[in-house]
Amino acid sequence: MEPILIYGFPAGSSMGLVAVLEWLGKPYRLCRVDMLGEMRKPAYKRINPRVETPVLITDAGDILTETMAIARWFEARDEERRISFDPKSRQADLMHQHMAYINTGFTGAFSPLWTALEMEPPNPTMQDALRVYGRRAVIERHDKLEEMIDPSPFLCGDRSSLADGMLIGVARWLDFHEVADRTRWPKLDAVRRTIEADPAAVYAQAVENGEDIAGSGACKGHMAIGEVIERFGR
Ligand SMILES: N[C@@H](CCC(=O)N[C@@H](CS)C(=O)NCC(=O)O)C(=O)O
């Protein structure tokens, strides 16, 4: 069977992994989950007890959670080095360095902003404090990432890689939460512009929007979340 990527909407980080699958070029399927709806129903815990996306159902039908673990699964199958580099190369080291940073401090900096946005029942005092703290953290993490990268259309190497895919799924939250103008970080902005214009990312964004557009052909269709839970859930 083809692996199935369960991606979340709205604005899930998993959108970047859809772009990665397009670059990888091997057959895959998608499963769409509403993070504010279906994901919060008890049955979803059979797929991920931590109630998060992304989740990969591997070609053996096993459940794999956590972005870094899913990225490693893709990398191990990237014999043609379309999304990764020779494992012993400097480029591979840097790619993993960027991926780890994006998946930890960079992504985590947005948590207070999401918490403030989704707080139920509302607590305006706490929400204001979270927003102030979150904005400061997001700006600081952007400053650090800007320092880490060279001026280049890609995060590492001379082509897109897993690191770029992971970046675009998350970096757009800067605009969503209206933290700052993206051009404040010119190197980062240049990478984002390159990747956002890439057909794989355009496809991934359209899929997340629920649009029906043609991609590379590697995606063999969607499966409903209910069916995925029934077939593969624990
Ligand atoms: N450690 C996990 C974190 C994944 C994560 O935070 N996913 C978000 C969406 S991007 C999520 O599912 N949040 C739960 C929610 O929105 O309720 C990973 O790296 O995959």
How would you describe this structure to a colleague?
It contains ten helices and five strands, in the order E-H-E-E-E-H-H-H-H-H-H-H-H-E-H. The protein has helices at residues 15-24, 67-76, 90-108, 111-118, 124-148, 162-171, 173-176, 186-196, 199-208, 225-232, and strands spanning 4-9, 28-34, 55-57, 63-65, 219-223. Strand 1 (4-9), helix 1 and strand 2 form a beta-alpha-beta unit. It is an alpha/beta fold and 234 residues long. The protein folds into two domains: 4-82 and 200-232, 3-Layer(aba) Sandwich (Glutaredoxin), CATH 3.40.30; 90-198, Up-down Bundle (Glutathione S-transferase Yfyf (Class Pi), Chain A, domain 2), CATH 1.20.1050.10. It binds glutathione. Residues 8, 12-13, 35, 52-54, 66-67, 103 line the site of glutathione. Glutathione binds at residues 8, 12-13, 35, 52-54, 66-67, 103.
Note the topology.
Elements (H helix, E strand, L loop, with lengths): L3 E6 L5 H10 L3 E7 L20 E3 L5 E3 L1 H10 L13 H19 L2 H8 L5 H25 L13 H10 L1 H4 L9 H11 L2 H10 L10 E5 L1 H8 L2
Parallel strand pairs: 1-2, 2-5
Antiparallel strand pairs: 1-3, 3-4
Bound molecules: glutathione (GSH).
